[in-house]
Amino acid sequence: MNNVIVIGDITIRRIVEQEGPFLPALDVFPTLTAELLDENRHWLAPEALSRNDKLVFAFQSYLVQTPRHTILVDSCIGNDKVRPTRPEWNLKRDETFMRALAAAGFGVEDIDFVVCTHMHVDHVGWNTRLLDGRWIPTFPKARYLFAKGEFDYWTEQHAKTPAPPFGDSVLPIVEAGRAEFVRDDHAVDEYVRLLPTPGHTPHHVSVCFGRDGDVAVMTGDLLHSPLQARYPELSSRFDVDRDQSAKTRRRFFERYCGTRTLCCTAHFPSPSVGRITAWDNGFRCELAEA
For the whole model, what pTM was predicted? Predict the structure, then answer.
């Protein structure tokens, strides 16, 4: 599958900023055992699991055209951001994201809405760019949709301990008057609506597209690896509420299992998009040509 998916009157493009082995699987999933990983190695490797047992992650946005709007779902890592715990992201200055956007035929002024599934570092980075020492909205004409509960949660966390992604990639959007605070089940119009998928963060949302039902859904960090489809109870150490995350994941898979809805994941390795089918007591994301 290439990076352009056409399904009905919806066109989806993947804008990939980085992809490759990221973190050890046993570190990402606290309840994952070496034995269980070994049982699944034959189907995970090499696409989703590297030789040294690191999960292969894509870091990407989805650019979606509906008959009404052009929407960017999540905004990846960004440039010039101070991220000392992630050397590969710290003060990054490359044009990979912008080149991918241009290769798709779009510029920053073409985006009508930026929708953030949540406010973690790799989902808000390109919300802003550095200009003359100030953080300004990267997409100058866009309305940035933030779930109000998610914003309130991070406002509280930021007051206790400064959260750099919130400070440099979210608050400047609010200060510039480009933010729109919405409910977790907000509908932009008849083609675009939010689906509450809490657990990873308290007000994490997925983004559904399609006029007559969900033809595609962007999952955000509801799941990070195909392993979590087979074992929905496998929560990551990044989840704020691991029990809730597991319950949300199973409900999500049950909702879309056996349907034609495209599941567009944030971090699965390329091609990142598939349809949900049953597998024993769990599920799988069958890579699908649209």
Answer: 0.96
